[in-house]
Structure formats: C-alpha cells, structure tokens
Amino acid sequence: MTLFLPQQPGTVLLVGAGPGDLGLITVTGLRALERADVIVADRLGARSVIDQLETERGAPLDARIIDVGKQPGHHPVPQSGINDILITQAKMGHRVVRLKGGDSFVLGRGGEEVTACRAAGVDVRVVPGVTSANAVPAVAGIPLTHRGVATSYTVVTGHDQLSEIGGGRDHTVVVLMGVGTLINSAMVLARSGRGDDCPVAIVEDGFGENQRVTIGALGDIAFRAARRGVRSPAVIVAGDVVTLSPYADGAFTQATEPAASSSELVRNP
C-alpha cells in the first residue's frame, strides 16, 4: 500500500527526480509521472529523467510538461511564478507532479512550494528522492562517512556561510551549486581549520555523459578547476574521505606539485 498513489485530481505531488538517472527515481515517483496530467519540471535531473522515460516507453508521456528550469544567473520563471502554476493547475482539477532534481527538501525550495500550496487550500504531498549530495559523490567512490575517517557531514551551497561550519577534516563538507564561488569557498574552508592540504573532489555532470572527477586540495583546487575548465553542474566534496576514492589514487603523493598529472584524473565509470 502506498500513501501517494493513486493521485487524486486537483492535487500536487512533489517528486524528487534523483540525480538524473532514470534508475534512481523511486518507483512511486515513476508511477506518478506516468499518471500525471501536468508535470512542472526543473532542468537539473528532472528533464533528463523525463527524456529517458520517454525513450524507454517509445512514446511521449501523456502529461503536459511545463518547463520551469533555472540556469545559473537566469531564472525565467521566478519561484513565486512556479508556486502560482502549481496552485492554478491543481485548482483546474489536474493531477500535478512537481518534478524536482535530487530530493525536493534538500536545497530545493520544496518547503516553499508545499507551504504555498497548503496556504491556497491545495492538497500537496512529497515523494522523497535521492539527493545529488550523496549520490554524485558515491558514483565517484567517495563515502561521506567512513569509520575512522569521518563520522558526520554537512551539505551547503556555495553561497552559504562556510566559516560557520564546525569540525575538521573528519567532518565532510558537500557543496552544491558551488563552482562559481569555488575560490572563496576553498579559502574559507582552509582557514576555518581544515588546512590548505585538505583533500577535495569536484564531480562534474554526475551520472551524465560528461561526468568527470577533478582531485586536489583546498589550497590548489581552484587552480586545477580553472585549468580544466570545470563547469556546473558539479558537486564539491572536502574532507579526508576524498582519499578513499579510486580517482584519488596517487593524487596526494606529490602535494608540492599542484600540476602533477596524477592529481588530475579523468575517468568515465
């Protein structure tokens, strides 16, 4: 028995699409997409899942798809507009799926959308998803916690106050939406107790065709990223757990040579 399906007309389901691989959306989320009248979709993760599902079906989904995807520095539909779309479509009697990348409640503004729907008298429920904060490091072989290495972790954006994060290198820090602020983030984390030699990994386009991993340390990761042309979307991981990744093999044996090729691995799993 499921608490979410069958979805009733005039309701909204916030569905976490996961990191963009069709195999990582929940069964409930997948069924919701197939039964929806309207899908209000983000860009990251969500659009990829829709495309993969339609390819697998060999036909488009029956639902009308409304694209509200945001790009860095370009938000064609503001958050208030997204809220209005959800409410309007639900009040028209549609089964509305709000498809968001990762998990709706992890740095996804899902709480704001739930609050808006409830305030408007619209029945809204949340279908959890797999957040990129743990899925993308995992595909690069980086555990966020590991016995004897790290017992806790924090997930932040590149715009958060990183200086307020406690702990040392045994407290893993995962930074989402952080490529544009990488120089400042690395400097702040290094100065707040982790040190310039704290291991760092940047995983670009996790689960995508252009997935690649850049390994370095807080003191040189901005240089490495600039030299390699690192771009969003990417997940940044800082902490000693990075050394457990197969991508890090040999990366920290010559810490004084920031341009060493062994520290700039590119592999496609």
UniProtKB/TrEMBL annotation:
First and last residue of the signal peptide: none
Ranges where the Tetrapyrrole methylase domain occurs: 12-221
Keyword set, alphabetical order: Lyase, Methyltransferase, Oxidoreductase, Porphyrin biosynthesis, S-adenosyl-L-methionine, Transferase
Gene3D superfamilies according to UniProt: Cobalt-precorrin-4 Transmethylase, Domain 1, Methyltransferase, Cobalt-precorrin-4 Transmethylase, Domain 2
EC number: 2.1.1.107
Coiled-coil region: none
GO biological process: methylation; siroheme biosynthetic process
SUPFAM superfamilies named in the record: Tetrapyrrole methylase
Transmembrane spans: none
Any one GO molecular-function label of the UniProt entry: oxidoreductase activity
Catalytic class of the enzyme: transferase
Database matches in InterPro entries: 4pyrrol_Mease, 4pyrrol_Methylase_sf, 4pyrrole_Mease_sub1, 4pyrrole_Mease_sub2, CobA/CysG_C, Siro_Cobalamin_biosynth
One Pfam family per UniProt: TP_methylase
Name of the protein this chain belongs to: uroporphyrinogen-III C-methyltransferase
Organism for this UniProt entry: Brevibacterium linens ATCC 9172
